[in-house]
Amino acid sequence: MRSSEQPRLCRVAGRDTWHIYHARRRVSTGCSDRAGAEAVLAGFLKERDRPQIAVISCSSILDLYLTDRRTRAIPGLARLEWAHKPLTRILGAKPPEAITEAECHRYTARRRKDGVADATVRTELQALRAALRWAAAPERRLIAEAPRIEMPARPEARVRWLTRDEAGQFLAACKAHHVRLFVTLALHTGARSGAILALTWDRVDLGNRLVDFREPGRTRTRKRRVPAPINDTLHGALAEAKTAATTEYVIEWAGGPVARVKHAFRDAAARASLTGVTPHVLRHTAVTWMLQAGIDPWKAAGLVGMTVEMVQQVYGHHHPDHLRDAARALG
Questions:
Q1: C-alpha to C-alpha distances, 142 to 29, 30, 95, 97, 131, nearest whole angstrom
Q2: Does residue 131 sit in the same domain as residue 238?
Q3: Nearest-angstrom CA–CA distance, 204 and 238
Q4: pTM strictly above 0.70
Q5: Residues 294 and 177 placed together within one structural domain of the fold
Q6: How far, rounded to the nearest angstrom, does the alpha carbon of residue 212 sit from its chain's CA centroid?
Q7: What is the maximum span of the chain, computed from C-alpha positions, in angstroms?
Q8: Cα separation, 308 vs 310, whole angstroms
């Protein structure tokens, strides 16, 4: 075959993937379906005259992206590392051009078969989309363009929150002092788990009753961390904890910071006979309690670092005046 002839798709004995035959060489597309292979071939034809863009797999892109995120200490790194594993296992060998709509649907079906919820599949595919967009950025040009990533529909939000009685039961079931302090901070500030675990005593002003969850040097993201006032209940708990502190961290155990409290929550929930209690549930609980008490959504949003739109959309129905003026207009 003359090298001037157009590259074409072909099958190879003993292989279940399509190959591109060009200049007396065969290159695997990584696709077993014809549609995906044709998409790879189209990308090959488009970019064959652009030698500055090398052939690269999704696995390589994911590795490079994860390394970059680690270097920058970007928030959400743990979630990205967790999503990296199934993405690499299932899609890693494929080039970006092979990530078609059909391939995304197959990935979703595969993960559902593994017993993974759609919300988790969305998180994984969002990580893939971010990595591919990062690779296609003008300052890198690892790939010509990022393919469109099709995801399962966003599941309907299910907000679990604790009643006052449930919160009391759960707090009583927390055996360790650092877990009880974590719960108290979460219930009385609505802060996220990561912000509470990263909190140091130099950002706790007991005199002016203010706790600042903004971590110095931390990259600002949409998950805002904000200062929060300290009420009487929280002030007593923090004052007591500070007298016994042995490290710079507010939440400490065995002379060091605490990485996570998920297992402690699971055990405490079991002792309290409560289901569905996670650290994030306490954030939902704080916002719900504020709305139930008639606090203006704008103030509630400001305290916990949410948007007013989010508070109104997810928690607004808890407010005693929610849509009552609209209902009165119909009377």
A1: 18, 18, 12, 12, 11
A2: no
A3: 9
A4: no
A5: yes
A6: 23
A7: 83
A8: 5
